[in-house]
UniProtKB/TrEMBL annotation:
Gene Ontology cellular component list: membrane
Family note: Belongs to the aldehyde dehydrogenase family. Belongs to the cation transport ATPase (P-type) (TC 3.A.3) family. Type IB subfamily.
Name the UniProt record assigns to this protein: HMA domain-containing protein
This protein's pathway: Amine and polyamine biosynthesis; betaine biosynthesis via choline pathway; betaine from betaine aldehyde: step 1/1
Length: 1259
């Protein structure tokens, strides 16, 4: 049963009592956080086998519902036979209800907070005689009385009425205590004010302040319950809602997954999640079963083999016969397991609920006795110190945990963790990285070295998306091995078996051993050795002779057992994998072999936790995947790795944001320290109340004349609170446990350190939401990720998905469906509404996005904010063009005859692929996205893997603005893995690319295979010509801005400066002085004018250019290395060389960094010749006071953009693009939108006369 209206342990006890008093109810387990009741019903024998079985249960459900409704507890019995989809609707409805309750609580809190604050300000008048008159007015009894009355009839009305109604029903709750306290204080104060002769004091401010404090707690409670309700919602998202039902022949149609019946045939394409449990009847593929088993290695599947709902199809199309669907699937069993674990209550909770039910009566009785004895009120505030003993310590404990990278859900989690004596570690993704890596290569013959084998294997594996392929390619790239060329048309891939091809004429096969043997035999080659190693069963390499490549999941932490032994914890390893690899990992981390449980399914994991709990153990489960979710929910405390899936993190009580196993010990240590403080606080509070309450009640008044007045009582209460808070704050001095260096993962034992900023950690957890496809965050098909390393301080600040061809396929399909839907038919006016909404969101979130971009690629914060302004302006500009496009449709063309009427329509292309760079991550994406959307296209955006975070956010912003699902899709990943398959996808109507000229050629050739247009905005080596009549100071300013803006990482940067000889010396002097004054610092500081370059490779490349310039004979004017005050990060001083010659590499090649090459010239003709002597032609600039000369030089420049008297201005209203090796086509302005439109001619023959080209015969 779903029940609402419960507020405290007293309510839980009342609901439990009401349910268990009804006939046929054996037991009721009521859970306050989940707002559910699990009711066990005894069915009479005569009903058990009759047709009335369900009717009998329905009748009991109606009776229980009626009983609870009569006591103001709204409830609903869940459908026992409901489908998984209906269960998801229940979860969603509960979330929506909690959102409404939270909004209501916040509104009431806002009003109560204002009234309480006004009362508090009134108290200041008593302490400050010289206070302004307004404060004295606020402190008057009349004003206090008015505010108290407003608090009672306004924000506190619902609370007070509920309390008195509960009292009338004989089931008082915490609202009853609050209501009695508030109304009693108000009533006594009214009597005191009306009859001043009694000498009583007024306490009008108490109701307002009391209600304010209570409503703060109520709002926090509603928010916590809302967060808790997302657990099952996260799990439900793993089951697909649609399935591809095969009709007659090979056609299929999408249907709701819950409509699939046993025996139905379903098509499952690459990238799809399998919608049912069933059997493959045709096709072969590899299936990622990590959602169930936690193992990273996909499993080959072919005809006759079983597949499970929720698993991911990696690389082949298969047909599956449904055997179990909906609630009968294994994944549905896991959902029920988590739901059942959350519905159960701990023994301590049941004890607390029982005590809470009687606590209300005890407090009411004690207060009534004191009143009757002394006929006075004033003692009710003393017990409030008990409220702070635990919450303050818990608040400090959870905050301290956050600083250590521990996300702790609440005080109950801290309490459970403090008693932990047993820790269960999942293997894959927890003790291992869950990603294959090359461990060793054993050549079978001496003719081939390990490096040769690896290079040949990488040649064919670059074209595939298998996890072992990624391991092979990564190992080859890490060793810097020369890349072989795959012979055209030689690649052959068989899903689940392997891949083969010819590299520079040499046959290569990588795959399952038997398959490799067959491939090589067919090519006339031989294999003579056997693959060894766990992953070699999936892929071994053969090159004339076979080789052994062992790709195993790397053991993460060698210190696990040592660290946990420090606290005397019993450690176990739990895995769905086989015994051998599980024992190997256990040996690597020091876990005894008898503590290893291998081959355990998800339900078995939860059962093991239950068995240990029955033995009296307090169990902590550490895991990272959906297959661990049941055990995480069942455990005394669930601990999720920060790198795991969102579902595991939602179920767990603690999330290790640092993704380090050592943090398990930190969590236990912190929780034990926190509860030690709570015990100390409780000791003080109970002692204080044991003494204070009798004194306040007047126990010593007759004999010693000692009594505590309200004023003294308040002072003592304040001192007690200070003690409790101070003692709790000492938790901040508790340091994390000392961990050995081996605790760090091998791949993170570099100089990279974890980001210190909690804000950054939070942002990363928000951004790492996988690929944005079809309006949702979806997992990359490979399951792999790329590290996000901030260039500011080399900190690893997060991860982005490593997408591949399967992700591209899913994104293109989503975009194609969206284009065929309403978006492709929308008017420009309707599209403009969405574009303007996106612009408004960019303005609203400007600060947040600018900080994210600075963190991601090092751009100074003011530059990033400037880019955000430009991005918003670009959307607004193209919104206007979209509206104007409507008026241009069916525009007439004069064809010189009245017999024909010709009109022009401009229509969208369809699905467009946008590949964008890292130097302006969001802005240059917007330069393409805005006109493409304005034209009516749907988009697959692939940003650079070096700076993707704000582009992922753009997808979320577009969804928030109302853009339909599938219109904008964002995928991330390496160029060969994601960019290449996107460029050559046959369903893409156009490719728009910005990047290097080398990559641009590959993209253009890929698009040309399908005869698709491609817009190329490529590299540059732009020249700035400065004539002798120019203002030298202004020229220096523009020369620096043209090359040092954006740390020189700008394709249009005027990095070649030509200065007329007569002013060259003066120019050099001022350039050196001004460049050395540029502020180089943390780009988050507003005064920063030069930030770091994007990554280590770029940093090394720029320094190599600098060293080569010195070697070739150029003169270093300034800069040339790292700033002395910045030992960390990828900072380079603004650098300038003089006397650079035309043959120098620095003059010819694009540096893409803050390095300026300066040369001199004598005549205008020489300057133009030197400027045009380049393979690039993106931009150029000229500075002179002679306007005619400027226009003459601008005309002679071979560039798509020429600036006069400046450098680098860019406006969305003006076209942007180059010539020669800088690309072709134009972005921005009306040209930018025109490139995303098809021009269609529609001609109508309107003459009344017959055409009569073929005259009829007169016969």
């Amino acid at each position: 049963m779903d029940i609402s209206g419960m507020r405290c342990g007293g309510c839980v006890r009342s609901v439990t009592r009401l349910l268990e008093q009804q006939p046929h109810v054996r037991q009721a387990v009521v859970n306050l956080p989940t707002e559910t009741a699990l009711v066990y019903v005894i069915i009479p024998k005569e009903q058990q086998h009759s047709k009335d079985h369900d009717a009998f249960l329905e009748q009991i459900g109606q009776r229980l519902t009626q009983v609870l409704l009569e006591h103001n507890f709204a409830c609903k019995v869940r459908d026992r036979h409901g489908s998984t989809a209906s269960a998801a609707r229940v979860v969603k409805a509960k979330q929506q209800e909690r959102v409404k309750r939270l909004e209501d609580a916040l509104k009431r809190l806002a009003v109560a907070g204002m009234l309480a604050s006004a009362c508090f300000l009134g108290h200041l008048a008593h302490l400050w005689p010289g206070a302004p008159r307004l404060l004295h007015l606020l402190g008057s009894p009349r004003v206090h009385g008015t505010m108290s009355a407003l608090a009672l009839i306004g924000p506190g009305r619902k609370l007070v009425l509920d309390g008195f109604q509960a009292l009338c029903r004989g089931a008082p709750n915490m609202n009853t205590l609050v209501g009695l306290g508030a109304t009693a204080s108000f009533g006594i104060s009214c009597i005191a004010a009306a009859l001043p002769g009694l000498g009583w004091r007024t306490f009008f401010e108490e109701p307002a302040m009391l209600l304010g404090v209570v409503l703060v707690g109520r709002a926090l409670e509603e928010r916590a319950q809302l967060q808790a309700s997302s657990d099952l919602a996260a799990l439900q998202g793993l089951l697909p809602s649609r399935a591809r039902l095969i009709l007659a022949g090979s056609d299929w149609q999408e249907v709701p997954a819950e409509a699939v019946s046993p025996g139905d045939l379903l098509a499952v394409l690459p990238g799809d999640r399998v919608p049912v449990d069933g059997c493959v009847i045709s096709g072969c593929t590899t299936i990622d079963e990590s959602a169930l088993t936690g193992e990273a290695m996909p499993v080959g599947k072919s005809a006759g083999e079983q597949v499970t709902a929720g698993t991911v199809n990696c690389d082949g199309s298969i047909v599956v016969r449904s055997e179990r669907a909906g609630d009968a699937t294994v994944m549905a069993d896991i959902l029920r397991l988590v739901d059942a674990a959350q519905s159960r209550t701990a023994p301590m909770q049941r004890l607390a609920d029982s005590v809470a039910g009687r606590f209300t009566y005890a407090m009411m009785g004690l207060s009534a006795a004191t009143f009757l004895f002394w006929s006075a009120v004033g003692t009710r505030i003393f017990p409030q110190v008990l409220k702070g003993v635990a919450p303050t310590a818990v608040l400090v404990g959870t905050s301290s945990g956050a600083r250590r990278g521990l996300l702790i859900r609440g005080g109950d989690v801290l309490e459970a963790a403090s008693h932990t004596d047993t820790v269960i570690f999942d293997k894959t993704g927890t003790l291992t990285r869950g990603k294959p890596a090359i461990r060793s290569i054993t050549p079978a013959t001496p003719e081939l070295s390990a490096e040769d084998i690896l290079a040949y294997a990488a040649c064919v594996e670059r074209q595939t998306s298998h996890p072992v392929a990624h391991a092979i390619v990564s190992a080859s790239d890490a060793q810097g091995l020369s890349s072989h060329t795959l012979d055209a048309g030689s690649l052959y891939q068989e899903p689940g078996q392997g891949v083969s091809g010819t590299c520079n004429g040499v046959p290569v096969a990588v795959g399952v051993e038997a398959w490799v043997q067959r491939q090589m035999n067919s090519l006339g080659a031989s294999t003579s050795s056997r693959p060894a190693g766990e992953a070699s069963r999936r892929r071994g390499s053969s090159n004339g002779a076979d080789s052994s490549q062992a790709a195993t999941s790397q053991a993460r932490y060698a210190a696990t057992h040592t660290c946990t032994q420090k606290r005397g914890l019993h450690v176990l390893l739990l895995s769905g994998d086989r015994e051998a690899p599980a024992q190997a990992v256990a040996a690597a981390v020091g876990i005894p072999s008898d503590a290893v449980h291998a081959g355990v399914k998800p339900a078995g994991k939860a059962q093991l936790v239950q068995q240990l709990q029955k033995q009296g153990r307090c169990v902590a489960m550490v895991g990272d995947g959906i297959n661990d979710a049941g055990a995480l929910a069942e455990a005394t405390v669930g601990i999720a790795m920060g790198g795991g899936v969102d579902a595991a993190a939602e179920v767990a009580g603690i999330v290790l944001l640092g993704d380090r196993v050592s943090q398990v010990l930190d969590a236990v240590q912190l929780s034990q320290a926190t509860f030690a403080k709570i015990k100390q606080n409780l000791g003080w509070a109970f002692g204080y109340n044991i003494i204070g309450i009798p004194l306040a009640a007047g126990a010593l008044l007759p004999s010693a004349g000692i009594a505590l007045t309200p004023t003294v009582s308040g002072a003592l209460m304040g001192l007690s609170s200070i003690f409790v808070m101070g003692n709790s704050l000492l938790l901040q001095l508790e340091g994390p446990s000392h961990m050995p260096a081996a605790d760090s993962p091998p791949d993170k034992q570099r100089s990279h350190k974890q980001a210190k900023s909690p804000v950054c950690e939070t942002l990363m957890r928000m951004i790492v939401k996988l690929q944005f496809i079809n309006g949702h965050w979806v997992s990359p098909a490979s399951g792999n990720a790329l590290a996000v390393v901030s260039p500011i301080d080399d900190a690893v600040v997060g991860e982005i998905p490593a997408g591949n061809a399967a992700d591209v396929e899913a994104a293109v399909q989503a975009a194609a469906v969206a284009y065929k839907g309403p978006w492709g038919q929308t008017s420009g006016k309707d599209r403009a509404v969405v574009l303007k909404a996106i612009a408004d969101l960019l303005k609203k979130k400007k600060t947040e996005l600018a900080k994210l971009e600075t963190l991601d690629m090092g751009k100074p914060i003011q530059e990033a904010e400037w880019d955000l302004d430009d991005a918003a302006g670009c959307f607004e500009y193209y919104a206007d063009l979209a509206e104007r496009l409507d008026k241009k449709q069916w525009s007439p063309v004069d064809v010189g005859t009245e017999d024909f009427k010709t009109e022009i329509r401009q229509e969208p292309l369809g699905v467009v692929a946008l590949i964008t760079p890292w130097n302006y991550p969001l802005l240059m994406a917007v330069w393409k996205v805005a006109p493409a959307l304005a034209a009516g296209n749907t988009i697959v955006l692939k940003p650079s893997e070096m700076a993707s975070l704000t582009c992922l956010e753009l997808g979320a912003l577009a969804r928030e603005a109302g853009l339909p699902a599938g219109v904008l899709n964002v995928i991330t990943g390496l160029g060969p893995d994601a960019g290449a398959p996107l460029s050559e996808h046959p369903a893409v109507a156009k490719v728009a690319f910005t990047g290097s000229s080398v990559t641009g050629r590959r993209v253009a050739m890929a698009a040309a295979k399908n005869l698709r247009p491609a817009t190329m905005e490529l590299g540059g080596k732009s020249a700035l010509v400065i004539f002798e009549d120019a203002d030298v100071a202004k020229a220096v300013e523009w020369a620096m801005f043209g090359c040092f803006w954006g740390a020189g990482q700008v394709c249009s940067a005027t990095s070649r400066v030509l200065v007329q000889s007569s002013i060259a010396e003066a120019f050099h002097e001022q350039l050196k002085q001004r460049a050395e004054e540029i502020k180089i610092c943390d780009p988050n500081e507003p005064e920063c004018r030069l930030g770091p370059v994007v990554n280590q490779a770029q940093y090394d490349k720029i320094l190599k250019f600098i060293e080569d310039a010195k070697t070739e004979g150029a003169d270093l004017l300034t800069g040339g290395g790292r700033p002395e005050h910045l030992p960390q990060g990828r900072f380079i001083k603004p650098t300038a060389f003089t006397r650079v010659k035309r043959e120098h590499r620095l003059w010819r090649e694009e540096v893409f960094g803050p390095v300026l090459a300066v040369a001199s010239f004598e005549t205008e003709e020489e300057a133009v010749a030197l400027a045009n002597e380049s393979e690039f032609g993106l931009a150029a600039a000229v500075i002179s006071e002679d306007e005619e000369r400027c226009r003459r030089v601008a005309k002679a420049m071979e560039a798509g953009i020429v600036w006069i008297g400046c450098s680098q201005p860019a406006f969305c209203q003006a076209p942007w693009g180059g010539m020669k090796n800088s690309g072709h086509g134009r972005e921005l302005g009306e040209y930018g939108m025109a490139s995303f439109l098809n021009v269609k001619q529609v001609t109508t023959y309107q003459s009344k006369a017959r055409w009569d080209w073929y005259p009829e015969s007169k016969l």
